[in-house]
Design a protein that fits this description.
heterodimer; A: mainly alpha; 12 helices; 77% helix; elongated; B: alpha/beta; Rossmann fold; Alpha-Beta Plaits; six-stranded mixed beta sheet
Chain lengths: 272, 327
């Protein structure tokens, strides 16, 4: 019994100085990232089905709807894959909201708040883990895209730049969905609350069809909303065409979303 | 000597005007177990949430080992462990991984984490299941792991929020022994409970809380004596024997008997001797009761004495997981 209490080391473990605080912040974030990634590995079904869904979308649009969609100057499969990339990572951001809602519901966040860890680590750890998951999903889509006939029209460097650009956007979206997750009473509701945001963004966009085919009242939104901007940038990088303006705009969107929504998420977290 | 845990005039009102704490004060001596005793909704969990820096009080001061929880929350979080009624452990990790995570978030050296995990898993009888996901764990095992996680960093102060609520009797006994061991090693424990028996066994000092106020405080022995709650309960077949019984029983047990219908309650803090005396006197008076029981003090009795109403279940807005009370 005498060993249960252990040696008192508590009082010595206080962050002294900004350097140590920063190092602990990084270490706390990595611990939370690892914990979240382990959870993904422990539920292989979830990982499997979360990759099946985008594959279904590729097949659906490539073989079911694709025949009826004509995009001037480009084969539909080449047009589609950059859009699928962005749609998939946007859908993936929902897992940020579900994960946080679940942690809240189970009382884990309350427990984290009573630990001497960095306050930011729970949110940063969650968004970074979801970014890592998105990297895997993007690689799967690349392989599936190739299998159904997608071919890079520019070069590998530009293609990778396109992937980085949309992963940055996905990371930004995670912060937005973190706000939803921290506002929802439970994980089921978090999921339901996410879709009204997600559907207009991904489908009323240039991801699957040219915006020019939409009615004029919708076109204004569809053309300028962030998903379209990122899709257009990725498409330009992967298929060719003028890139500078699209890339600049999508980086601006991603940074803007983080600047506005991350503080909101942090505030929600503090009050949750 | 500075108190290990201090609450001074804590006030907390939740949205919707629920006044969870209405000026709660108490102090816990180092190396002792302090019990916060009260029904659901009394404000026990709210007090623990404030002391563990999770919730800010509207008014009042709270300190752990002399450090103000509002002024130095980061430092205070390194001083205590917290375990509770809702085992907050990660379902998707194994027991060992849970302990490692908590150890890392406490910034312990790798070697210390491994050693502490090893010791705690063995002491809490979790060694065989240490590398299994928690999905296969029973409620008692989760609760033990939750407590083990609270102890990874060897905190000098431990908060236990209804640690045995919902546990089977054997698990409860096991947990009591662990807590006694910790205190023997010098840990200061603040324990909240609805069970008088638990407070009686573990705590050296108690505060009884109701509606966010401390309504009585002292050692368990003093409270039981003061609140006079061991009773002999005598039920008669009809009201014909009541008057004779009352006359016979008046004068023993220190307090006058109470009657309602055909039931007579005789305070019996002096112990079983009162019951023997009562039986003898009833026999002399020619009264044969239908039932005759010696009832040990219960929380209900304490409450009845203190508040004039029974301790009922009203549902504590603060003792359910945080998510359920968020706006």
């Amino acid at each position: 019994m005498t060993t249960i209490a252990g040696e008192r080391v508590g009082a010595a473990r206080v962050a002294r100085g900004p350097l140590r605080r920063f190092r602990w912040g990084v270490s706390d974030t990595l611990t939370v990232v690892q914990r979240n990634l382990l959870a993904y590995l422990r539920i292989p079904e979830a990982l499997f089905f979360s990759s099946v869904q985008p594959i279904m979308f590729v097949l659906l649009f490539r073989y079911v709807f694709g025949g009826a969609i004509h995009v001037p100057g480009v084969s539909y499969v080449n047009y589609l894959i950059p859009g699928i990339f962005v749609q998939t990572v946007a859908f993936g951001a929902v897992s940020t909201s579900i994960g946080l809602a679940e942690d809240l519901q189970k009382g884990l966040i309350e427990r984290f708040r009573a630990l001497p860890m960095a306050r930011s680590a729970v949110l940063t750890g969650r968004t970074v883990a979801d970014l890592a998951r998105n990297v895997v999903v993007v690689l799967i889509i690349t392989a599936v895209g190739y299998a159904v006939g997608f071919r890079i029209q520019t070069n590998v460097a530009a293609f990778v730049a396109g992937l980085l650009l949309l992963l940055l956007f996905a990371y930004a979206l995670s912060w937005g969905f973190a706000v939803i997750g921290l506002s929802a009473p439970n994980s089921e509701t978090a999921q339901v609350m996410s879709f009204p945001v997600l559907f207009p963004l991904t489908f009323a966009s240039s991801a699957f069809v040219p915006v020019a085919s939409m009615p004029s009242w919708l076109r204004g939104f569809a053309e300028h909303q962030p998903v379209s901007v990122v899709v257009d940038a990725a498409r330009a990088l992967m298929l060719g065409g003028p890139t500078a303006s699209y890339v600049w705009q999508s980086v601006a969107w991603s940074v803007g979303i983080v600047v506005v929504l991350a503080p909101l998420a942090v505030r929600r977290y503090r009050r949750a | 000597m500075t108190a290990a845990i201090e609450a001074d005039g804590l006030v907390k009102t939740f949205k919707g005007g629920v006044r969870a704490l209405d000026g709660v004060s108490f102090a816990v001596e180092p190396g002792t177990v302090f019990g916060l005793l009260g029904p659901n909704g009394a404000g026990k969990t709210t007090a623990v949430r404030i002391l563990t820096t999770v919730l800010r009080p509207d008014d009042g001061r709270a300190a752990v080992l002399g450090h103000d929880v509002s002024a130095e929350p980061g430092l205070v979080r390194g001083l205590f462990g917290l375990a509770g009624q809702y085992a907050a452990v990660d379902e998707n990790l194994t027991a060992r991984e849970n302990l490692r995570m908590v150890g890392r978030l406490n910034h312990l050296p790798r070697g210390v984490i491994a050693e502490r995990s090893h010791t705690l898993l063995a002491d809490f009888a979790l060694e065989d299941a240490a590398d299994r996901p928690l999905k296969t764990y029973s409620g008692g095992m989760r609760r033990r792991l939750d407590l083990a996680a609270a102890l990874v960093a060897s905190p000098p102060v431990l908060f236990l929020d209804e640690p045995t609520t919902g546990l089977d009797p054997q698990s409860r006994l096991d947990l009591w022994r662990v807590i006694e061991g910790l205190v023997a090693d010098g840990t200061t424990v603040l324990l909240t409970t609805q069970y008088l028996e638990e407070a009686d066994r573990l705590a050296s000092e108690l505060a009884v809380v109701d509606h966010g106020r401390v309504i009585a405080a002292g050692t368990p022995a003093a409270l039981k004596t003061d609140l006079g709650t061991t009773v002999v309960e005598i039920v008669l077949a009809d009201d014909r024997g009541v008057a004779a019984s009352m006359e016979a029983l008046t004068g023993i047990g220190g307090q006058p008997p109470r009657v309602s219908g055909t039931t007579i309650e005789l305070p019996a803090n002096a112990g079983p001797g009162v019951a023997m005396e009562a039986l003898r006197l009833l026999d002399q008076a020619g009264v044969v009761p239908v039932s005759f029981t010696l009832r040990e003090p219960s929380l209900d009795d304490v409450f009845l004495t203190l508040t004039g109403r029974p301790a009922d279940d009203r549902g504590d807005p603060a003792s359910v997981p945080a998510s359920a009370v968020r706006p």
